[in-house]
Amino acid sequence: MDIIKQLLGRLHPLLVHLPIGFIVLGLLFQWYDRKKEVLKQAVALIYLWATISAVLACITGYLQYTSEGYAFDSIKMHLWLGIITALFSLVMYLRINEKRSPNGLKIIPIGVLAGIMFVLIAFTGHLGGIITHGEDYLVEPLPNSVKSVLGIEIFEEKTIVLNNENWERALFYEDVINPILNNKCVSCHNRKKAKGELVLNTKEGILKGGGNGEIIVDSNSSESALFTRLILPKDDEDHMPPKEKNQLTHGEIALIKTWVDQGTPFEVSIGELNLSKELFEDYFPKKSDFNFPDKAVEVVAIDSIKLVKNAGFHVEKISKETNYLKVSCVNKPNFSDKDIALLKPIYKQIAILDLGGTLITDDIFELLISLPHLTALKLDNNTITGSKIEKLNKLEYLRSINLTSTKFDETNLNKLEAIPSLEKVFLHNTHVTARSVQYSIPKDIHIDLGNYELPVIASDSIIY
Amino acid sequence: MDYLDRLIQEKLEREAQTKTRRHFIKECATGLGGLALSSIFMGCDPLGQPKKKTALAFSERDLNPLATLSPPHNPKVKSVIYLHMAGSPSQLEMFDYKPTLQKLNNQDCPASLLEGKKFAFIKGVPKLLGPQAQFEQVGESGNWVSDFLPHFKNVVDEVSFLKAVHTDQFNHGPAQLFMHTGSPRLGRPSIGAWATYGLGSENQNLPGFVVLTSGGNTPDAGKSVWGSGFLPSVYQGVQCRSQGDPVLYIDDPEGISRDLKKSTIDAINKINKEEYLKYADPEILARINQYEMAYRMQIAVPEVMNINNEPENIRQMYGVEPGKESFANNCLLARKLVEEGVRFVQLFDWGWDSHGTDHTTAVDLGLRNKCREIDRPIAALILDLKQRGLLDETLIVWGGEFGRTPMQENRGNKEMGYKGRDHHGDAFTMWMAGGGLKKGASHGKTDDIGFSGIEGQVSVHDVHATIMHLLGFDHEQFTFEFQGRNFRLTDVEGEVIKEILA
Questions:
Q1: Tens digits of per-residue pLDDT, A264-317?
Q2: pLDDT tens digits, one per residue of A228-248
Q3: Does the interface predicted TM-score (ipTM) exceed 0.85?
Q4: Residues of A in contact with B472 (CB under 8 A)
Q5: Is residue A22 domain-shared with residue A79, that is, in the same domain?
Q6: Structure pTM?
Q7: Domain residue limits, chain B
Q8: CA-CA 20 to 30 A from B238: which of A47, A271, A325, A347?
Q9: Chain A residues close to B499, C-beta within 8 Å
Q10: Do the strands B79-86 and B394-399 form a parallel or antiparallel pair, or are they unpaired?
Q11: What gap in Å lies between CA B301 and CA B207, rounded to an integer?
Q12: β-strand B344-350 against B79-86: which pairing, if any?
């Protein structure tokens, strides 16, 4: 029986369109026929159908209300107005069908009745729409400026920004959890809309819970719906946010979990809770660790790139997000020192330069200082000794130099110190020894001497 | 003869009868009308502009489909080395340490785990099988590694583990396709094809996407796991051999000089270019380029594929076996190729399907041998890339197509002579190492017996999204239009695994 009730209930959104259609049709006919009055019988018939279908709509509507778990408060206006509309269409029928019309009714002008009918059907229909689509369905597409003029509450996206100085002082709820809930949950769970009777933009709302009870249980995330609903499979009906809505990221889910496990602190700072910084990593400003300077450079002309390409270099923008270039001699093994002049049109844009396996000599260091933004430099597999490497101290962005398989001499190690931003030097397969590195290189430059070994062990030769 | 003539006559008459004047007029209405209509509506794309023939305006990519393009976002790595253990290694003997499983060894598997699950071979109620290896926490990260992989312990701090990867396929072929193309069915481009299509290749003398296989067999899913799917075929992987000629027929045939070959290729390409101007079919360009690249490869490939040129200490570190087909050789080759600017190197090692049907597939015997074969080479590959400054710009991915069950396989519902594990896709281990990744991280957890992921579960699509992210792509934006819609490697899923990004 419940199934039939539920099924009939679900027909309500379909059936309601019948009385709406009939009533609108009746009103239109009445307007068209206002002078000649030849369609009276037809109009009366239309209102009779309207009455019948409106009654059916009322019945199915009531069934839907009872079987789908709507709160009475949220539908009562629609329910009462629906019934009134049904009754009023009967009134219209009686008023127009003069044979059956009670005398009292005839006194009221038909135009007034039609007006009331119109208001009733429009308003009842609108209330029904609000129930299915939500209160702000109609106005949602409007721009925020128009919305605020209309007095509609806007849940603007809040951004969370933390930095190394302030993150411990930031309030866990106010500065992190509240914005997450605001951005991903509150558009449905606010005081006006309150889907599932749950309000998530106030402390009281969160603690009170929703129609299914409390959403935070014993400060235990695995029993608290505020968290468990988030990690259900997306196809699960109970998964939140609903599949088609903007989902929480893994990081946000982890933060909600932590907040619940910490006992949902509302006024406590992140530092007091002793939480790890990793949890909040997403909100720290991104440190640029790419191989190009952290400042803009003008774009290089396509013709210049073509010119360099035709000279046999491989040239490409590091990415479409930057104008810095990466240049390599992978297809130009006969590159020698003087060829650097071929790169002149793009000197300023080169951030990554690979001269590995070419014919360069130690004179290259003097020439390289014309590339002011050089960040990563590869000079592997050749015979340079590094005797003029100190020249590179003019390159303020140079972060790494690859000198593997060269004749780099350890007496030149101390010259590396002069290069201001240098972080990494690769010296595998050179004559540099670990001892000399220890003596001549400051600790903030990481030297990789390579020559790693994997000693032979017994199990290497055991065959099972 | 007469008979035949009559037969032909009859056929012509019949044809004439079916095609009457009335028929012609009727056909005109629909046929010609339809033709006209289709040109008005531009095929399936009613609003689209007529496609302009670009034949005369060659862009760099037109002439060389492997010309490089810059990625949309700043990349962390420029090359990828993907190590695939075909057959699927047992995470429970290598990385996913489960002491509880040891305690439950030989007990019946709880029915709740088996409900609604499908296994390739397990029938009825199987018994749990404890780990067959000794585990140890190693490195500064303290991640677990078994004694099957002693050399790997040296590089554990370079690696980011994904302990709870899941796939929805439980047979090799579809699962391998899924792992490499994002779909368990044929027809999609492989990760390497996407990468080469999106970025091109820096070295003009080498293919952008090289495939090397070892273990005596190629993957069950066939060459589609390095195929180009609906992308132009030039982006498919080029399979090279580590035994014999690296590429078949790379030597000049007897009596044909290189000059003659060059002029032959020039002539063929000239004709092909004329064809292209006529038909504007990109496949012709792919062909032109293949010819030219094949010619250049004749010099470059034997050079780069020759591991004998490497110094003795390097060869020892990898444990290479020159002249043989081995995973160690392939690892060394992978480094050499990446060093030369190859975009994507795909290694397949066959023989990891540890069902326990015989000695070689027993998790306590054959699996140990397989582990020994990859242990030294992988550790060497990571260290060698590191000392050359290449690890920061290379991504290494390791994994199988799925994992293996915590239960002992009971093929045919009988106890088997050797210890083996069945296919299991719910939770298995993969790892990545290289640029843009955390070092020594471990993301995801499995339950006490390693059956399901309980934390940090990631899907195959998530792994793909992460690879694309490191190469400088937003996996949701990197698409190719095919059959009326935009396709991407991750289709409609995938989330970058931020937890392992540096």
A1: 888 888 888 888 888 887 787 766 667 888 888 999 988 899 899 999 999 999
A2: 898 888 778 888 888 777 788
A3: no
A4: 319
A5: yes
A6: 0.72
A7: 2-41, 60-246+305-500
A8: A325
A9: 250
A10: parallel
A11: 9
A12: parallel
The Cα–Cα gap between A453 and B383 comes to 8
List the single residue in B68, B150, B203 with the smallest CB-CB distance to A457. Answer: B150
Q: Which two tokens stand for residue B233?
A: 């075929």
Nearest chain B residue to A321, by CA:
B73
Check CB contact under 8 Å for B389 and A464. no
One domain for residues A48 and A176? no
A450 neighbourhood in chain B, CB within 8 Å: 386-388
Strand partners, B430: B162
B454 vs A contacts (CB less than 8 Å): none
Q: Which residue segment(s) compose the domain that A364 sits in?
A: 302-448
- Within-domain flag for A291: no
Q: Do A121 and A211 belong to one domain? A: no
Q: Which fold has domain B60-246+305-500?
A: Alkaline Phosphatase, subunit A (3.40.720)
Min Cα distance A366 → chain B (Å) is 23
Residue A445 and residue A425 in contact, taking contact as beta carbons nearer than 8 Å:
yes
- The rounded distance, in Å, linking the Cα atoms of B126 and B129 is 9
- The beta-carbon neighbor of A331 closest among B204, B365, B499 is B204
In a domain, A17, yes or no: yes
Tell which of A233, A249, A283 closes a domain: A283
Looking at A102, A133, A164, the residue that finishes a domain is A133
pLDDT of A134 strictly over 80: no
Of A402, A453, A462, the CB nearest to B389: A402
**Number of folded domains in chain A?**
3
Residue type, A275: L
| Domain at A313, CATH number | 3.80.10.10
Closest A-chain CA to B75: A319
User: What's the burial of A297, exposed, middle or buried (CB within 10 Å: 0-12/13-18/19+)?
Assistant: middle
Residue A146, in any domain of the structure: no
Which residues in B lie closer than 8 A to residue A319 (C-beta atoms)? 70-75, 472
Residues B166 and B401: their CA atoms lie apart, in Å, by 10
Residue A279 lies in a domain: yes
Alpha carbon of B377: minimum distance to chain A alpha carbons (Å): 10
Place of tokens 């009727």: B26
The pLDDT tens digits for B344-362 are 999 999 999 999 999 999 9
